[in-house]
Amino acid sequence: MTAKVVDKTTKPEIISRKFFGVVVSAKSDKTIVVKVESVKIHPKYKKRYTVSRNYKVHDEKNAYKAGDKVYFVECRPLSRDKRWRVISN
């Protein structure tokens, strides 16, 4: 039997999801609701349709208001619903 040599100097690559959307609500403290729209194609009819989803995103400085366009990434759970944080607009 031969043991595999594992290089301990390199870190495993962390894949974080990144989205772009429009702020729908900024009424909560340090939380914004961002709407992300994506275009999908029906598998049978090949028709394009829009699917939207709302994400609760952490906004530490309360800098964003409704209508702003923002980028956000995945992070550790910050509350029951929040698993995202704003990186820029």
Keywords:
mainly beta, 89 residues, 5-stranded antiparallel β-sheet, OB fold (Dihydrolipoamide Acetyltransferase, E2P), 0% helix, 5 strands
Average predicted local confidence, pLDDT: 90
Question: Could you give the distance between the termini?
Answer: 54 Å
Point out poorly predicted stretches: none
CATH architecture: Beta Barrel
| Beta fraction | over 45%
Computed structural class: mainly beta
Radius of gyration: 18 Å
Q: In the CATH scheme, what's the topology name?
A: OB fold (Dihydrolipoamide Acetyltransferase, E2P)
- How many strand units? 5
* Apparent shape: flat
Please give the domain count: 1
| CATH uppermost class | Mainly Beta
Give the spatial strand order of the biggest sheet: 3-2-1-4-5
The largest sheet, given as strand count, sense and whether it forms a barrel, is: 5 strands, antiparallel
Order of helices and strands: EEEEE
Number of helices: 0
CATH H-level homologous superfamily name: Nucleic acid-binding proteins
The share of residues in helices is under 10%
Question: Can you summarize this structure?
Answer:
The protein has 89 residues and is mainly β. The protein has strands at residues 18-25, 31-41, 48-58, 69-74, 84-88.
Structure explained in plain terms:
By secondary structure, this protein is mainly beta. The protein has one domain: Nucleic acid-binding proteins (OB fold (Dihydrolipoamide Acetyltransferase, E2P), Beta Barrel). Helix content is 0%, strand content 46%. The chain has no helices and 5 strands. It has strands at residues 18-25, 31-41, 48-58, 69-74, 84-88. Strands 3-2-1-4-5 form a 5-stranded antiparallel beta sheet, with no helix packed on it. Strand 2 and strand 3 form a beta hairpin. It is flat and about 60 Å long. The protein starts with 17 loop residues before the first strand and ends with a strand.
